[in-house]
C-alpha cells in the first residue's frame, strides 16, 4: 500500500503535472514517478504472496526468482527517484496522488492471469509508452540528471519487468492449453523441467509441455477410470479452462483486458520497447479505440450488404 504520509485522492483530483518547464512541474513529475515505484514494490511482492502458494497454478521456482528481482529493481528505482526529488527541493508526500494501481490490483486479486495482463502487460507497458516523452520534458526543462536516470537506468529495467509479465502469461496459457487430459499438475511439472533449463521460461513452453503429455501424470493430475473403464480427464481449474478456450495467448490477453480493464488502450505506443519485452502490436492494437470502432463499422456494413442486394 502507498505510504501513509501520502494523501490519496481520486485520479481526477490530482493536480496537473505540467510539461516540465518549471521547477514545480518537474517536482510534480518526479513525485508521480516515485509514487508509481512505491506501488510497484508492493505489487511485485503481492503477486508472489497472493498467487505463489496457490496449488492450482503450480508455479516453478523461476516465477518467484523473477518477481523478487522485479521487487528489488522497483525498490532501487524508488530510492533513486526519491533522492532526485529531494535534490529538486521536494519530498515524497508533498503532493497528493491517486491509488489507481492498487485499485487494479484489488480488481485482479482472484486471477493471476488477470493480474499479469493488467498490471504487468498494460500498466507497466503504458509506463514504457510515456517514458520517452517524460525524458524529453526533463531535458527541455534543463534537468539532465533526471532525464539520464530515466533513460539510462530505469527504462531498460522496466522493459524487463514487462517481459516478466508477458513471459508468465505465456507460461500459464501454454500449461492450460496442453493440460487437457493430463491435468494442470502434470503439465506444470513438465513446465518446471524446462524452466530449469532456459533463462526464458516461456520460450518453447508449448512444445515442452506437449512433449511431457505422454509421461505419467503427477499426483492430482491423473486420469481416473470412468464408468465402463474409459479414461476421464481431471477437472481443470477455472483459470485454466478459461485460458484453454483461446487458441493463442494474444486472444486470451484480449479477453482478460476487456474483462478487467476499463476502456480501450490509448496510443502512442513505444513499439520498440514493447517488442523488447516480448509482445508486438498483435497484443495491443486490437484493444485500441480505432481498431474497435473500425471493426464495429465493418460489421455494420456487412449486415447492410444483404439488404442492399435485395433492394
From TrEMBL:
<dbReference type="InterPro" id="IPR007402">
    <property type="entry name" value="DUF455"/>
</dbReference>
<dbReference type="InterPro" id="IPR011197">
    <property type="entry name" value="UCP012318"/>
</dbReference>
<feature type="compositionally biased region" description="Low complexity">
    <location>
        <begin position="186"/>
        <end position="216"/>
    </location>
</feature>
<dbReference type="Pfam" id="PF04305">
    <property type="entry name" value="DUF455"/>
</dbReference>
<protein>
    <submittedName>
        <fullName>Uncharacterized protein</fullName>
    </submittedName>
</protein>
<feature type="region of interest" description="Disordered">
    <location>
        <begin position="181"/>
        <end position="239"/>
    </location>
</feature>
<dbReference type="InterPro" id="IPR009078">
    <property type="entry name" value="Ferritin-like_SF"/>
</dbReference>
Amino acid at each position: 500500500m502507498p505510504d501513509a504520509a501520502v494523501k490519496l485522492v481520486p485520479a481526477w483530483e490530482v493536480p496537473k503535472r505540467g510539461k516540465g518547464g518549471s521547477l514545480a512541474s518537474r517536482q510534480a513529475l518526479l513525485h508521480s514517478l516515485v509514487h508509481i515505484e512505491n506501488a510497484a514494490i508492493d505489487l511485485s511482492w503481492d503477486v508472489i504472496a497472493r498467487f505463489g502458494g496457490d496449488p492450482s497454478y503450480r508455479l516453478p521456482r523461476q516465477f518467484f526468482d523473477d518477481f523478487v528481482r522485479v521487487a528489488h529493481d522497483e525498490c532501487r528505482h524508488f530510492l533513486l527517484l526519491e533522492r532526485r526529488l529531494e535534490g529538486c527541493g521536494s519530498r515524497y508526500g508533498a503532493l497528493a496522488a491517486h491509488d489507481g494501481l492498487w485499485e487494479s490490483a484489488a480488481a485482479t486479486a482472484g486471477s493471476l492471469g488477470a493480474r499479469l495482463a493488467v498490471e504487468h502487460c498494460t500498466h507497466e507497458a503504458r509506463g514504457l509508452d510515456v517514458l520517452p516523452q517524460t525524458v524529453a520534458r526533463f531535458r527541455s526543462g534543463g534537468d539532465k540528471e533526471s532525464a539520464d536516470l530515466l533513460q539510462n537506468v530505469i527504462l531498460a529495467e522496466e522493459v524487463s519487468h514487462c517481459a516478466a509479465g508477458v513471459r508468465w502469461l505465456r507460461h500459464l496459457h501454454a500449461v492450460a492449453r496442453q493440460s487437457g487430459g493430463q491435468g494442470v499438475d502434470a503439465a506444470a511439472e513438465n513446465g518446471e523441467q524446462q524452466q530449469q533449463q532456459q533463462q526464458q521460461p516461456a520460450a518453447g513452453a508449448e512444445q515442452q509441455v506437449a512433449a511431457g503429455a505422454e509421461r505419467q501424470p503427477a499426483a492430482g493430475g491423473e486420469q481416473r477410470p470412468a464408468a465402463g473403464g474409459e479414461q476421464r480427464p481431471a477437472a481443470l481449474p477455472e483459470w485454466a479452462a478459461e485460458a484453454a478456450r483461446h487458441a493463442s495467448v494474444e486472444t486470451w490477453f484480449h479477453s482478460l483486458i476487456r474483462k478487467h480493464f476499463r476502456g480501450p488502450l490509448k496510443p502512442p505506443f513505444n513499439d520498440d520497447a514493447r517488442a523488447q519485452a516480448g509482445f508486438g502490436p498483435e497484443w495491443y492494437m486490437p484493444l485500441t479505440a480505432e481498431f474497435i470502432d473500425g471493426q464495429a463499422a465493418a460489421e455494420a456494413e456487412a449486415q447492410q450488404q444483404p439488404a442492399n442486394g435485395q433492394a
